[in-house]
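hey can u check if this looks right to u? its 435 residues, i copy pasted from the old doc so theres a chance i mangled smth
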Amino acid sequence: MGDLPMNTKKAVIIFLILAVTAFAVYEYVFQNMNGFKRDSDFRISYDITGKSDFYVYNKKVFYLTNDGIQLFDQNGKNLWSDTFNMSSPVMITDSGIVAVMEKNGRTVRLYKENGPVSTIDSDNPIISASVNSIGNLCVITKSETYYLNVYNQNGEKIFDGNFAASDGLPLCSDISDDGKILSVCFLDINDINLKSRVCFYYIGETNLEHDTDSDYMFASYIEEDSVVGVLSFMENNCVAVLSDNELSIISLNPTASEKYKQNLKYEFANQITAADLSNKRIVAIALGEAGLNSKNPLKSHTVKLFNCKGSEIGSYEAEKNIDALKTSGNNVLISMGRAFAAIDYKGSLIWEYKAIQDIKDIFFLSSAENILLVSINEAVSVNINSIKSNENLPELNNQEESSENQSEQPPEEEPVSQSDEVSSAEQQSESVANE
């Protein structure tokens, strides 16, 4: 081939310079994460058209797609993987236990940190499921009636029941960490006004010695004019119950004459924009605008924190509307559109981050400062140790990101990443329980 004309040569040289410069900038942005320090080699890329969900526990990352689930350590090493094919899989999690199902599917797959544990197959479509920290699984299915079955981690059935639609629609459930109590909420639609009935059952043969009726229900209570959306067991057999009208924390003692006690009844004067009941020690709710005709509403964009005794242990006032909350150990992640903040259980600010572009999600990975960012096509671990309050930082290279973690070292029974830098974690954990 002959020599190129001078103008063509110049154009090629300029193109090469621009290409090399662009590549260098691209690499710099990803390696330094626009102002963040990379603190590990964790990095996963994926197709933006597929399912990509994450769950962080004990410095490990569960990664769910339509084709299966994998577990990675904090450095990005693949520990194990399991394949399946689901059109819209979801993860149900508790303390490193993961159940994978899809609504109206007929299979639930159970996993621990060391890999697959068991698979539950149902004859009827599955409408919801819940799991506890020892691998017990509650599965609610529907045919002509509703069926409620509880299995141990080996897939053996330890409790079952069926309920006619006239008994109410089973909206949600959870199992105590010792595997002895099942809590289920039913929505009663028989009257003009909706009401929710929260029921507590003995499960397993060890509980048959107690005085119960034929279905082993030992206690229940009704929330009038409300719809319960979430209930979750905390430590010491307490249950947090969230409805559209109030937050309740119930203490259960099946062997006592007073089988349940309401530790907290927090009626909402504001709209609730976000909540997290998954923590064993902390319940977090975010207040929005004042409710219609409400009396004495609180300031909007406020986070309220409660312990299992029903005591308010902390609060935090954000600058804008709160979309999501994630509790992890003794800390809370707050999502506010493109703004994010981390606080401790007393409401003290740990760090803030304001993004230029949309971020999908954010998780604590190994401490309050080491986080997992998940964009529409990549998940990367970063260190935000240098971030200071109210500091604007560059956005992550056109990516949305998600992460959940623990900033302070969590209580022993709390399954989140632990911060190696916080030496007073045990004292703080005790404070959460006792304040």
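Residues 45 and 378 are 4 Å apart (CA to CA).
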